[in-house]
Amino acid sequence: MKITVIGAGNVGASAAHLIAEKELANEVVLVDVVEGISKGKCLDMSEATPIEHNDTKIIGTNSYLPTANSNIILITAGVARKPGMSRDDLQTTNASIVEACTEQAAAQSPNAIIIVVSNPLDVMTYVAHKVSGFDRHHVIGMAGVLDSARMRTFIAMELGVSVENITAFVLGGHGDSMVPLPRYSTVAGIPIPDLMSKEAIDRIVKRTREGGIEIVNFLKTGSAFYAPAASAIQMIEAIVKNKKRILPCAVYLQGEYGIHDTVVGVPVKLGRNGVEDVIEIKLTVEEQAALNQSASDVKENIQKLTL
Predict the structure, then answer these.
(1) Domains in the chain and their CATH numbers?
(2) List 137, 138, 174, 260, catalytic entry
(3) Phi, psi (degrees; rounded to nearest 5) at 70
(4) Residue 170 CA, distance from chain mean position
């Protein structure tokens, strides 16, 4: 198993380290345009392998040639948000970056599965899908796993219970119009509407939607990276180990949930072949309307692209 990570910033480097630490690949290649950054970080990670007891080969490079024949390509490249910026504000800059990265990586690894982390997530996943020409089941955006993890964290804080007992589902675009689903969010199988007030749920839903900017406002000069990296790794592990996990991911829809020709977060089955199935759950009229609005927002941004 060979995994390429594009972008040696905080998310990319953290993901590369986790891949090596968990021994999810025999070889990890970390690519970055900045001279020396990927080589330095990979040398540092390699020097940790004797302590962490793994023999993963970790390569830092500015070239895409060493990425050839990768099984998975994780795209984290792009500029990060700053206070006052929305994810959509990054679109023009990051679209050109993701387009170039995808074109070069896909040429070296035409049979790979691509996972996108760059923001605005749904639009960047669309860019990777179109530029690569890969089957839609092989181009997946990481968003729902992160948003659901944030929602699970806030539920645990509210109730004072273990995060291990909590499941949560967040659908839709990775932005202000994301669709957290309290009905499908449970604590030890108990739906959260049975455990807390509507006011508490509304607070959690709002904080989940604003989870990214909350961290950006604290950091001032960067954005979240521990949880995004961990979320990408959960997806990679499901693929590498063929776990058939049901996870909320951003995928190109062709009629599922009544949505066509756009990328939006929905529950999928992840295994060795990437997205092996799109799971269509029953939504209320209100939930479907919220998902439609979220998809419409994504499509509006997609139409601004000049690919």
Answers:
(1) 2-141 (3.40.50.720), 144-302 (3.90.110.10)
(2) 174
(3) -75, 145
(4) 13
217: its two tokens: 């406002």
For residues 169 and 106, give the distance between their C-alpha atoms in angstroms, rounded to a whole number.
31
All residues at 6 or more sequence positions from 150 whose CB lies less than 8 Å from its CB, including other chains: 207, 208, 211, 227
pLDDT digits (tens, 9 = 90+) for 128-167: 999 999 999 999 999 999 999 999 999 999 999 999 999 9
Q: Is 53 a catalytic residue?
A: no
Q: How far apart are CA 289 and CA 164, in angstroms?
A: 31
By the 10 Å C-beta count (0-12 exposed, 13-18 middle, 19+ buried), 156 is classed as middle
Once rounded to an integer, what is the mean pLDDT over residues 174-179?
92
Residue 47: strand pairing partners: none
Distance CA(252)–CA(243), nearest Å, equals: 22
pLDDT digits (tens, 9 = 90+) for 215-228: 999 999 889 999 99
> Residue 85 is encoded by which pair of tokens?
């910026």
Quick check: bond before 120 cis, omega within 30?
Answer: yes
Q: How many CA atoms lie within 13 A of 230 on its CB side?
A: 9
Is residue 119 a contact partner of residue 75, using CB atoms and an 8 Å limit? no
Residue 228 phi, psi (nearest 5): -60, -40
The rounded distance, in Å, linking the Cα atoms of 126 and 85 is 21
- Looking at residue 3, its amino acid is I
